[in-house]
UniProtKB/TrEMBL annotation:
InterPro entries per UniProt: HTH-like_dom (IPR025948), Transposase_IS3/IS150/IS904 (IPR050900)
Domain of life the protein comes from: Bacteria
Signal peptide: none
Protein name: HTH-like domain-containing protein
Stretches assigned to the HTH-like domain: 44-80
Pfam families named in the record: HTH_21
Length: 83
């Protein structure tokens, strides 16, 4: 979470200053940044896009059961509650 904050605000503040304030090591931040996203994280991002699409297509009416059904009909395999 802290590393994500640093990444999002590096255009406004120096990385070294944010690391000092957030009490994290600069080397830890750069190591985190160098590691590619896991397959699970990439799949979560794709699912989130589809979830938002389904929700928007329903004009914000659909809840998790209907969105889950839409995802299954579209060929995605996941549980209603994904952890």
């Amino acid at each position: 979470m802290k590393y994500t904050f640093i990444e999002q605000h590096q255009s406004q503040f120096k990385v070294s200053s944010m690391c000092r304030v957030l009490k994290v090591h600069r080397s830890g931040y750069y190591a985190w940044k160098a590691v590619p996203l896991s397959q699970r994280a990439l799949e979560d991002e794709r699912l989130l896009i589809e979830i938002k699409r389904s929700y928007d297509d329903s004009y914000g009416i659909y809840g998790s059961p209907r969105i889950h059904r839409d995802l299954r009909e579209a060929g995605y395999r996941c549980g209603e509650i994904r952890k």
